[in-house]
Amino acid sequence: MVSVAEPGCRRTWQDRFAAVRAHSRWLTQPLSVEDHQLQSMPDASPAKWHLAHTTWFFETLVLRPHAPGYQVFDPTYAYLFNSYYEALGPRHPRPQRGVLSRPSLDEVWAYRTHVDEAVARLARDADADTWAQVVGTLELGLHHEQQHQELILTDILHAFSLNPLGPVYRPAQEAGVLLGASHGARGGVDEPNGAAWLRLGGGLTHIGHEGEGFAFDNEQPRHAVWLRPFELAARPVTVREHLAFIEEGGYRDARWWLSDGWACVQAQGWEAPGYWRAASDGGEGWQVFGLHGWQALDLDAPVSHLSFYEADAHARWAGARLPTEFEWEAALNTVSSGSGQVWEWTASPYTAYPGFQPTPGAAAEYNGKFMVNQIVLRGGSRLSPPGHLRPTYRNFFPPATRWQCAGLRLARDAS
Length: 415
What we know:
Blueprint lengths: L6 H22 L4 H4 L10 H20 L10 H5 L23 H21 L2 H34 L35 E4 L2 E5 L15 E5 L2 E4 L5 H9 L11 H10 L7 E3 L7 E5 L2 E4 L11 H10 L7 H10 L8 E7 L25 E4 L16 E3 L8 E2 L3 E3 L2
Parallel strand pairs: 8-11
Antiparallel strand pairs: 1-4, 2-3, 4-12, 5-6, 6-7, 8-9, 9-10
């Protein structure tokens, strides 16, 4: 094994750091200064805030403890750009991030440059012991920024969806892997309700991360679980299949819904997934808003922007259920099941694995404190940055969340 202190390894980390930071810049290139300021709801954040917060993370957890003589760019940023770390002091309220017209976007980019240059000096000059302490937090910071890269896209999508002009983030021909809400992997299965089933024998299996490679603390420790024999759909549910649920009155039939879900349907007036609307030309059908504007439905794409409640209701209507996160991981470790187009809701509440230990220090607040009133999603989406996902990854959101790129895959007990 190569020591993290060796020059070649340090250069690798410098390259990784530069690549992740550059990807954030690429993601925000299509946005105007005004776009960077938008906060369309309390759960979303302005793109400018994402850029500053991810920089604050490196300044606060890497540079200030480990870089001798480091000069903080601006002391007020500790209050403005702390997200939820109680141990690191008070913070600006999350629902009011959109009022932060100052610092300017130019000042935030200067902040990023200041921190990037300091990280490069630290990687070059730190002694072996210091670098050994730094590298784990640096890696955590890179994955943290990749999480915010996905949020930059989902948050601007929500903001643009509220604009009557229907702004285009990037034209489809320029989008690359950013396929937007109406594109994705083709299903290619004629049997309805996602059924070309993968049969898993159940029994004792091991779940969670172990060994080399990065994982968040909530993916550990690896532990044994007992699974009953089950079947998992070979692909996520498609737009075509969810449209059938709509047309058969699924959003008007309480028998498919959990009580809290039915209350959301009634209170929010849900009739279809997030970002769907009746065709604007007065004709029949629906349109969907994505990162390259309003488009006709792609019937063979995975349905997305569903809440957990909608995913659960669809599964009940289809005569199936949602998989547990353990079934999902066991299946994806066994066969290639086409994940990565949409985050897939599971039936599992977000709780600690047996023997869970949070990351030491301030990063202990990263995951563990949110282990209540959240549901686990697995897989990853077309908006997830490259190199960020793995089979043990546990995403989590409250069950009514619809602005994330989330869908479902059906499961059922083995007959």
